[in-house]
Amino acid sequence: MPDHASVGWIDIVVILAYLSITAYLGWLGYRGTRSAADFLVGGRSAHPVIMAVSYGATFISTAAIVGFGGVAGLFGMSLLWLTFLNIGVGILIAFIVLGEPTRRLGHHLGAHTFPELLGQRYQSRGIQIFAGVLIFLFMPLYAAAVMTGGSVFAATQFGIDFEVALLIFALITAAYVIPGGIKAVMYTDTFQGFVMVLAMIFLLVFTYSSLGGVTEAHQYLTDMEAMVPAPLAQIGHQGWTEMPAFGWGAPTYDLWWIVVTAIILGVGIGVLAQPQLAVRFMTVRSRRELDRAVPIGAIFIMLMTGTPFLVGSLSNAWFAQNGPILNGKVVQELDAEKNQALVELMQQTDSGAWTAIINPKTQAPATAALIVSERQEAEEAGGARFELVGGRSSVVTYVKGDADTIIPTFISTALPHWFGAIFFLALLAAAMSTMSSQFHTIGTAAGRDLYERIGTKGQPREPSLLVMRLAIVVGLLIAVTISYTVRQEYIVARFTAIFFGLCAAAFLPAYIGGLFSRRVTKAGALASMTVGLVVSLFWLLLVKAKEASAIGLVQLVTGGKTSLLADYPNWPSVDPIVVALPAALLTLILVSAFTRPPAAEHLDRCFPETR
Amino acid sequence: MLGLDDPFVLTAYLGIIALAVLSILYGLIRRNAARDEVTDEDRQWALEEKKVDDEF
């Protein structure tokens, strides 16, 4: 959509300056202290700002900013509940409740990966292998989300094809993660984190000020409720500053179940069981360091997720005030007082007459809700006279409903081009810090948790660097293939939500039980992980309509339906986590209750403080 | 209030700010409350982690 997408000399200067500083900091880091483990080996304390920002940079990526920001543009400010959970659960509960026990348990048992932590806690090679396989198979899905988000932004900002942007993104990622960039160089992470913070503050201030202030911006968006596109209104969208309609048993409640269960709960809770985040706690020096990191972590996450969710929603108001003028014929007055009308969109032919624009999906004339600002007499192609109206619409109209392009389109249209370059670098940094830990986790899952543990005749093998590198290359290829082939509605957010939900259902009960309970057994943990995974996959393959119909198995089983529960409204919109997590938790409790608890000596080793 | 008519969205908006303030207060109050010591076990763990990282 933007007509000024190109690379100018200012962009090149900005990009070179940024890369030079990153390279300099990276070089400084490599000369001395560079990773969290280095700080700990040296017995020194990482500054809380460094600790919090580097944790946040691992958590936040293009998936959150482009993917979920775009979903907010589509569904509205109900997404702010995700930011609420990101701070309340992802920072407060994670740092205060889980951080120290994870650090202690990891150190007592000498565990260095998440599967190893679970495996050692439950004295089970099977659990370690199970977790390793799950991570190796599904982490590429999350990496694909990050990659797609970055590529969509680059394609929009620099006016290149998505496929070209993806290829460049994949090459940069490969250059970063394969030769050794996977080490968490905390100084560069922190610098990149600061760039992200500044970019977000600028973006938020710019958006609010260009809409006349905080209250004015919100009020304008609230007043646009009648302009919600019909397909969204039919599933319960009530406006961009309102929660979707809540209820059960009718398709008009579908959106509430999508937003609350998949987007908010799936990601908001799933963060607790993210392998690459849990292991970060082990590299922390002490509880004091965790306590001190809480405020910075909270502010960082507030800016990194709250800003894109607000800006994504408010971009609807910005386009309604400043977007390109669209023309057409009024089909229905929506709100005469506010000049809002449903308009059949038209374009002018070479002869000067007006013809309807045809929606390629429906093959019917395209319609959109406009804030009408001009009216004039005009002539249709058939010669009939009619009143031609002109006006602006929400961002959803301009991006043709493609949520993943909302944030990139807003930035490349509304903001100065130099900011687009900085924002792109901030996104690139966010993507790289997240992907480096994703691929590091894939590599260690394959090398340490699978290859070493699946030794010959039950004996562990020697560590293999080659296996780790190969796993990273394979993971990268899978992620690129997924990004290249799957381009659907808000796919970035959906991939992320699927991975977070899977981790929550499969790992969370066993992880938390392992940290806090002496009574949870190996059988209980393994059964819980199995039930969590199986129920999640069953739900994704056969019940959750969007995912199931895209995979295609459900159509074969049901003879063409998109869900096993297609005849029961709302069930096909419910996320697996709502069913799988309680099932996994119940399994953990029940199986543990009926199986023999771990040996006292092992528990003393796990929890020497409470011996 | 703030142009947000839906109380649930307004609660989320203000709740985010409240949680951020709570986090700042927590950090200030607990700044030196917890013990800060690095045990031999911690150091041993970090050495192993560094070895794996360096090999990688």
From TrEMBL, chain B:
The organism's place on the tree of life at top rank: Bacteria
Transmembrane segments: 12-29
UniProt keyword annotations, A-Z: Membrane, Transmembrane, Transmembrane helix
Protein's name in the database: Uncharacterized protein
Organism: Allochromatium humboldtianum
